[in-house]
Write a structure and sequence with these properties.
mainly alpha; 3 helices; 0% strand
Length: 113
């Protein structure tokens, strides 16, 4: 059996820093300190942002159309039902989901319009 000498570097030791931890890859930065993005990634990021904005606009338009189709009494009764359900859940120490809280806020803000 041949053992390596103590002075011989271990395999992969060039990757370790002086503290013995693995060195992290440094992202490329420009002179201003901003991270450089690959052009294809930048284009994908821009397209994704445009798509998300378009979908958000469509959601809001759909919600507005749905709200205008309801009578104010229907909207008020839905708000009252949600608030009653929240009180019931608080009394029984049941967690109220964020979706329900957001729905109530959305109905209340839409009701004011």
């Amino acid at each position: 059996i041949c053992l390596p000498s103590v002075s011989a570097p271990l395999a992969g030791s060039w990757r370790r820093s002086s503290e013995g931890q693995m060195a992290k890859k440094n992202p490329l930065h420009n002179a201003a300190g901003k991270k450089i993005i690959h052009p294809a990634d930048a284009q994908r990021k821009k397209a994704k942002k445009i798509k998300l904005e378009k979908m958000k606009k469509e959601r809001h338009q759909h919600f507005e159309a749905k709200m205008f189709g309801k009578s104010p009494a229907e909207i008020e009764s839905e708000i009252a039902a949600i608030k009653l359900d929240h009180e019931r859940k608080r009394a029984h120490k049941i967690e109220i989901s964020k979706f329900q809280l957001d729905r109530l806020a959305q109905l209340e803000s839409g009701d004011k319009k």
